[in-house]
């Protein structure tokens, strides 16, 4: 007998399963089966057909369907849940049944009337993660929906799935968000005013110049990928777009967008191809003033256009959040303190924190405490307060370091109790753990944040710093350099991390060049630069820099500064101390 022909192709797989089916069967077997069959006939079968899908399997209490389009598959899943919810609201409890649904985009092997493959297995595992009445999406499915669907999904990060080798990024559509207007981390659409104090940004379709075939598609793809990438930064609300929304905003002024949609910033761009190159220009505009905040141009050799798109989007996504934060900081600087929201106080606290001075540390704590008073459930405020308290311990600003460190970790616990999957919390907790010498915990928090957003140059640089203190400075150099390449605008602010990693690697001349990028060096930066110059054989320059460090910090102590370097192996701080003494700094 000939074997059934096999065919492998990419498909959207939807797996549905009834909630509490076994329990219902135990109490009323006949009624439960009758209800399940009725729901299949009235809801599942017609909706799957309406969305051009095919039901491949009917399990005891569920179904497995396949679609040629991921948009059709997800729309079908949402329509099923919406219809079931509406039905349950008007039906007696004993006639109600809820389902969990998982949707994946993956490789599937079709053989006769059956399907196989990891794509199917992942969909089945996702179904178990969905809330009753909800939908769980894989990261692969979510990425292909950008701008094509009006719905809000919650980003739950990487999740291990049973018998699946690699963790899968999971997004959830909650049961109480049936109209797509609820709160979620992975926003695919929504044109209402944002409710948080965070800056809202809209990325408009990129204008294509030159008229080559495929330019419109390429420009739209870049805009959609930027939407997806920026949505992974927890400090920014992204106003996504469906096609109708995109067309409506294309010709609006930025001021009209502020009034009608509530966005604070607008990203516009253009694409031009010619002469074997592709050029993409991007600009960020403040919708209130109408002034351009930032602009940049990306010019690449045109080989594989989609690989180029990935590279450019990664560069834009790495640079934009830093530019938005810079604009937000300037806005808060000009704002009267009495008009500040909790978000504004967090921005002001960050500003003072970064000054690394006793008085600024005190002011930072005041702003962050005020933010907590205004919004007791604001995880960022607790995390930044923890970071500021950790700074006061690290730099000796506190008279009772032990008590302050305990308070910092209490702030950490509070932040995590509010949102244990908050990227910014994990990033800042990694900082606090480094400041207090808890390097293993710092690595855990950094890895958790990286799993949520591998685009973020702050996290890449932080991983490099953690590696340096753990004793793998050579690898630390690679991570910090990658962060600086991705975000050249933020490179000066990370130059001290690169300098430290290079110094710890014994690459002193390179360390001198790295420290030289710091725009306004503090006394510690000057001391480390002097140490690197001394090790590179430039003693006269080393002594000049050492004198400048002592002018900024008359009570400078090599012993105190080297003790603050949180190396796991304390012997790794000795070369820093010896080199600072060699430069003429006092023990």
Task: Characterise the protein shown here.
By secondary structure, the protein is of the alpha+beta class. 53% of the residues lie in helices and 17% in strands. It has 23 helices and 15 strands. Strands 1, 2, 3, 4, 5, 6, 7, 8 and 9 form a nine-stranded mixed sheet that branches. Strands 10, 11, 12, 13, 14 and 15 form a six-stranded mixed sheet that branches. A hairpin with an 8-residue loop joins β7 (152-159) and β8. It is elongated. The N and C termini lie far apart (88 Å). The model is unreliable at 175-196 and 241-245 (pLDDT under 50).
Q: Compute the separation of the termini in Å.
A: 88 Å
**What is the helix tally?**
23
Taking all residues together, what is the mean pLDDT? 82
What is the CA-atom radius of gyration, in angstroms? 27 Å
Taken from the alpha-carbon principal axes, the silhouette is elongated
Structural class, from secondary structure content? alpha+beta
Number of strands: 15
Largest sheet: 9 strands, mixed
Unreliable residue runs: 175-196, 241-245
Helical content band: 40-55%
Beta content: 15-25%
């Amino acid at each position: 007998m000939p074997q059934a022909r096999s065919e492998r192709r990419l498909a959207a797989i939807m797996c549905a399963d009834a909630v509490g089916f076994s329990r219902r069967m135990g109490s009323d077997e006949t009624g439960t089966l009758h209800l399940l069959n009725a729901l299949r006939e009235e809801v599942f079968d017609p909706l799957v057909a309406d969305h051009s899908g095919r039901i491949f399997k009917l399990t005891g209490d569920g179904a497995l369907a396949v679609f040629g389009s991921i948009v059709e598959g997800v729309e079908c899943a949402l329509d099923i849940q919406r219809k079931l919810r509406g039905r349950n609201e008007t039906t007696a409890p004993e006639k109600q049944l809820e389902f969990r649904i998982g949707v994946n985009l993956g490789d599937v092997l079709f053989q006769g009337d059956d399907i196989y493959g990891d794509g199917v297995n992942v969909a089945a595992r996702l179904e178990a993660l969905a809330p009753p009445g909800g939908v769980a999406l894989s990261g692969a499915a979510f990425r292909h929906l950008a701008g094509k669907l009006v719905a809000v999904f919650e980003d739950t990060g990487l999740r291990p799935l049973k018998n699946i080798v690699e963790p899968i990024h999971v997004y959830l559509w909650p049961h109480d968000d049936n109209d797509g207007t609820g709160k979620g981390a992975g926003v695919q659409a929504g044109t209402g005013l944002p409710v948080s104090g965070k800056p809202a940004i809209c990325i408009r379709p990129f204008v294509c110049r030159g008229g080559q075939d495929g330019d419109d598609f390429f420009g739209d793809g870049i805009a959609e990928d930027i939407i997806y990438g920026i949505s992974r930064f927890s400090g920014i609300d992204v106003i996504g777009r469906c096609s109708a929304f995109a067309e409506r905003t294309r010709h609006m002024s930025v001021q009209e967008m502020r009034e009608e949609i509530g966005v604070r910033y607008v990203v516009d761009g253009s694409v031009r191809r010619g002469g074997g190159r592709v050029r993409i220009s991007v600009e960020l505009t403040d919708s209130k003033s109408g002034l351009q905040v930032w602009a940049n141009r990306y010019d690449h050799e045109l080989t594989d256009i989609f690989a180029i798109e990935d590279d450019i989007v990664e560069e834009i996504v790495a640079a934009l959040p830093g530019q938005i934060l810079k604009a937000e900081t300037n806005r808060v600087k000009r704002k009267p303190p009495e008009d500040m929201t909790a978000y504004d106080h967090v921005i002001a606290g960050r500003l003072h924190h970064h000054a690394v001075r006793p008085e600024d540390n005190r002011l930072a704590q005041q702003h962050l405490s005020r933010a907590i008073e205004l919004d007791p459930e604001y995880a960022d405020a607790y995390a930044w307060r923890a970071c500021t308290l950790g700074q006061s311990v690290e730099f000796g600003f506190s008279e009772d370091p032990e008590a302050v460190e305990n308070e910092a970790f209490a702030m950490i616990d509070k932040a995590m109790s509010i949102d244990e999957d908050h990227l910014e919390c994990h990033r800042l907790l990694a900082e606090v753990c480094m400041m207090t010498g808890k390097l293993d915990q710092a690595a855990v928090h950094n890895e958790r944040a990286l799993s949520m957003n591998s685009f973020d140059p702050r996290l890449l640089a932080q991983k490099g710093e953690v590696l340096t203190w753990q004793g793998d400075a050579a690898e630390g150099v690679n991570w910090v350099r990658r962060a600086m390449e991705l975000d050249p605008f933020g490179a000066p602010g990370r130059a001290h991390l690169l300098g430290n990693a290079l110094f710890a690697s014994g690459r002193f001349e390179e360390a001198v060049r790295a420290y030289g990028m710091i725009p306004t060096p503090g006394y510690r930066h000057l001391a480390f630069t002097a140490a690197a110059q001394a090790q590179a054989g430039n003693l006269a320059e080393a002594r000049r820099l050492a004198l400048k460090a002592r002018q900024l910090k008359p009570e400078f102590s090599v012993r105190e500064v080297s003790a603050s370097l949180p190396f796991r192996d304390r012997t790794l701080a000795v070369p820093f101390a010896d080199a600072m003494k060699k430069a003429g700094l006092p023990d």
